[in-house]
Specification:
With 291 residues, this protein is of the alpha/beta class. The protein has 2 domains: 134 residues, Rossmann fold (3-Layer(aba) Sandwich); 134 residues, HUPs (Rossmann fold). Helices cover 41% and strands 16% of the residues. A 10-stranded mixed sheet has the order 3-2-1-4-5-10-9-6-7-8, sandwiched between helices. The chain is globular. The chain starts with 9 loop residues before the first strand and ends in a 5-residue tail after the last strand.
Length: 291
């Protein structure tokens, strides 16, 4: 999310797929926790392309009517599930990824299913989800599977500013859900073949640094959320693999959009990119100003 004390606005992409229904259920719960507004957005396009200037064709009329019914069904489900929420529906013409990014501008939290109606059977993350997590100006939640109400919130940290923000958000998410928080710092050191002369010494140094940084991180964040039970873990392994494994029993995985690697101007780091594809639980990729 962000460090702003005002409740965030949630935007969820609707396309009639199973994935978007999972995303809607997650967004309803998240908005309910915060008494926050929820916006349902469906992008519609004509059934086939025509030359510009030909006006409204039968194909576009049929597509618009179909889209309107999809959005109305999702809106009805949300209003029945959470009657106290401020819920709105928006039908917008255009490419789904572009429409959702526009709708989520201004710090809104964008929630999408891991897969929509397109793609192929074994695809882990659809094109809309990928565009969203790479290009959104705010935080993005990729929802994979049914709503989970058991297990901890899991957060990946590495000492970077992005992971400090992710940790702050993860504490808030755990507090809202009244569940434990598992903080994971994966210890990864390059091999001797990659130029590390003493692997054991490098790993020991990283572990000492991580242990010290973790306790400082947790001491600061715990003051804001003393109700959250915290567990810390520093397994050895590649961060994306470690976090994907931790997500199997978690209810939400939180990561920063960028960690300590990469280069200036990079929108999405390699670890966030990998877990967006491989996480078993919903994954929240956090962007914003560090608290």
């Amino acid at each position: 999310m962000n460090a702003n004390p005002d409740p965030p606005r949630f935007v969820v992409g609707i396309d009639g797929s199973v994935g978007s229904r999972y995303a809607l259920d997650w967004a309803i719960e998240a908005a309910t926790f915060r008494h926050a507004p929820l916006e349902l957005v469906h992008a519609w396009r004509p059934m086939f392309r025509t030359d510009a200037g030909h006006g409204q064709t039968d194909a576009s009329i049929v597509s618009l009517a179909h889209s309107d019914s999809l959005l109305a069904a999702a809106l009805g489900h949300a209003q029945v599930t959470a009657p106290s929420l401020a819920i709105s529906g928006h039908l917008m013409e255009g490419r789904p990824s572009a429409v959702l990014l526009e709708a989520a501008a201004g710090g809104r939290v964008l929630v999408v299913g891991a897969r929509g109606l397109g793609g192929y059977r074994d695809l882990q993350l659809g094109s809309v989800g990928l565009h969203a997590v790479v290009h959104s100006s705010g935080s993005v939640v990729i929802v994979r599977g049914q709503l989970r109400r058991k297990g901890p919130v899991v957060v990946g940290v590495d000492g970077s500013a992005g992971s400090a923000l992710a940790l702050s958000v993860a504490f808030e998410e755990a507090s809202l859900r009244k569940c434990p928080l598992l903080i994971v710092w994966a210890l990864y050191v390059h091999s001797t073949e990659e130029g590390v002369p003493d692997y054991a010494r490098a790993l020991a140094g990283l572990k000492a640094f991580a242990d010290d940084a973790l306790h400082k991180f947790v001491a600061e964040a715990s003051q804001r959320h003393p109700d959250v039970a915290v567990e810390m873990s520093s397994p050895v392994g590649y961060p994306a693999e470690v976090l994907a494994k931790a997500s199997v029993t978690g209810r939400l995985l939180v990561v920063g959009a960028r960690g300590s690697g990469g280069f200036s101007g990079m929108r999405l780091g390699s670890i966030a990119h990998a877990v967006a594809h491989q996480s078993s639980s919903p994954v929240m990729v956090v962007r914003g100003a560090a608290p």
